[in-house]
Write a structure and sequence with these properties.
By secondary structure, the chain is an alpha/beta fold. About 20% of the residues lie in helices and about 40% in strands.
Amino acid sequence: KAKPGTPVRNLPRGKNIIISEDKKEIIAKSSGYISFVNNKINISPILEIHGDVGNSTGDIVFNGAVNISGNVLNGFSVTADGDITVNGVVEGAAISSGSHVFLKNGVQGMDKAVIKSGGDIIAKYIEHSEVVAGNNIAAESIMHSKVTCYGQLGLYGKNASLIGGATSVKSYVKAKYIGSPMSTVTEIRVGNDPLMVSEYERLSRQMNDYRQALLKEEERLEKLNRLLESAPNNEKVQNSIDSAMSSKTYVEEQVLDTENELRSVIGKLSGKKGFVVAENKVYPGVKIIIGNSMLIIKEEMERVTLYNSENGIKISNLP
């Protein structure tokens, strides 16, 4: 038989909580992380992780801000509505913030890391990662990464470098070094909405797939027609021809629809406001796309700004 409990005389008070009028309930004043410290219940808008995000913590999901003193290990994720701050290194992990992301010791992404923010992303360095920022990105270096930035991308510090990968930025890119002396392939798009750029790339891949499919249907029809010539009354071959004609007609319609969608998107990729600044050097192997103009760098250049004009991309020397 259970023993009667002892009534609580004084409910433990703490931060961001209130006690009900009948003194029987503790009510949170805000969402956040609940803790019981020094006989007090507290609700904090910041979740503090003392150490690494890994096996001991599992994945982190929080509706406030998250502050991590250690690393975010390979294969784990951190998702938060507020800011995410990582004082260690992010490995091949996933970081997603509705606000800003601060990566004080950078990302060694191993081609697996995905970093997304609704606001800014500020990192010491970013390597072999996919990065999407709803606003600006600032770092000391970005190497071999896929970068999508809806604001401006600035690289700062002694060796501020953008090397390799594909970068799409709505406003501008500013770095000391773009590309590398080894002519590393580096693609930079500026001046367009990255969403439109992604849609253009998707439609281009789709168009290629449809054209390949159309070619296969035409080859199939050609073979079937040769068979029908040798066996004019073969009902099975005739049925196969009818089926192939139907498939060919469908693919042709898809090609036309995709061509129209591409024309519409290309019309929106004519922005000329973006520019690229190389404060020290830009190397061969760099491809610059501004609006719907493209320039492939073939010779090393020093201290230049690249911008769009009526006659394509122009280059001017920095003072």
